[in-house]
């Protein structure tokens, strides 16, 4: 078989090779398919092309042929011509690594992210805490030292630099802290197996939940991945690459495929895990699995095999056309320059009634120019006020948003067969009421128990109160007296909704669900706060009027950011505000429901991925109101968090620079060249009973669920069965005793 270097080919055959790559075959006497020593799983719907091996070009005279002109082919140009299923790992890797390291832009990235962390990141000191207690498993991180280390590293290409910055932010294990440059996130890499980690007979293993290779391997055990124990291999990967939670068990849940609630269809569907579905370039072109299948109808004698599966690769919906490295950067990486709206292209006409031009004929004092400048400033001031009004409505809601988990990628579903594989079984519960997201169910076998599924806190604050009112009322009228609140997969949303959920269950007129909080008071923050207080039309995170005194409850009219105090949480002495509360219209939703005020009639359950505003709700219910809690998944025999990254409102670079611009404050950082998501949490929350000044984010004792359930081959495929297990454990049916054996 002839082998060529895809980057070094003669000018005479380069166009022919490009055409052959696009067609998936070659007329040049060599094949693009290679055979591995072990079976290679190919996708069921198409044929993948294995990556070719490069060999040195023959020396002159070996073939007797005259020397040919050698030219370098742009690997991004080759990639641009390919479509599924002919895109290989090697094509994407070569294009990514062909983008040169830009030292100037790298310095801007490091400088800006350092400023973002130094001036705004609320956990700059706390994140250096050592020996966090279980269920947390997160090492201390000196983020400023990390950026300094990156600034002193000599990179061969831009891709490696961007990857290191991303991994550094991931090491914080905080879904609110992100560096997600979109440039290298335009392709989706998918494995043919969906994996899960069921517990059977008190033993946890990695198994195949869905076999996309059509080799009948569902529920076969994955013994090793690339020669390493499968469970450990996945845990190690997700601990490095997906900093969602400080709890390793929760991170494991995010790595594996599980069911999530579809708010449109009002049913549970599979959500592919991060380990087998990635938008970042994998470490190698394939994964090798050692698989063991027990004796079954499909495998009468059992089955053991080693399979090597290359990545299936798809273009994401964010993908744009390109034909070279430069156009890849321009179309898929670079931020589109902001252009002024049409109304801001101001032309100031000469309207003073004379025939002069107000500049040349008004004498040496330039009074005409002065008048013109004054009129221009008035027009600009009016336009700024209009811009403020446009952004005011947006800021009003985003101000109180603790931030939803960052979406990692958007793509069309590469495996439509997933839905067909779900087994139709008798209903566990029937739908009683639903809104745009929150849905209300009643258990069929235990009709006195209702289930409220709350998949997100990103809801319409104007309409969701009516959804809750109608849903709880219909549950009560149907005979429900006890409720399970299921917040599985809820990544957070609006802080106001976090408080409303608690107030619906425990409506108390004289007790606030609003957390004590504080913010950093760097010089950058003080400058923004002072201008924001002076500007009545605008309202940012740093507007003092958005907060109330923690003791008196009176809204601030002075800049409390100037009354800062030094505090050393771990290693760094930093300035913080005094404790304040965000302004919130409390809703005491007293409706006389039997579960209101009664924690024995309420249960909460999640998979630990309940984060941000969702975590704020569950922390209040679990630790203030003593509601019992159940967490599902994670590592067998180890504690699992009920929620993650509770609170800590998030602030993006885009928002910060927007505030700088509107408030006319000189920014301490720059806009980055690449479009993406760059953000940090800026506000930390405290429990009222906190005596040591320790934010909720780092109080691990608050996170541990009361009960821990492992997935089984049944419950991993039918989430609703977990409702029955929890209901029967917490409210023992008549004639039964004891807990379900699957509950730790």
TrEMBL record:
GO molecular function: serine-type peptidase activity
UniProt domain Tail specific protease: residue ranges: 449-626
SUPFAM superfamilies membership: ClpP/crotonase
Pfam families: Peptidase_S41
GO biological process, one term: proteolysis
Region ranges (Disordered): 50-69, 349-372
Chain intervals with Acidic residues compositional bias: 349-365
Xref: InterPro entries: ClpP/crotonase-like_dom_sf (IPR029045), S41A_metabolite_peptidase (IPR052766), Tail-specific_protease (IPR005151)
UniProt-recorded name of the protein: Tail specific protease domain-containing protein
Organism, scientific name: Linnemannia gamsii
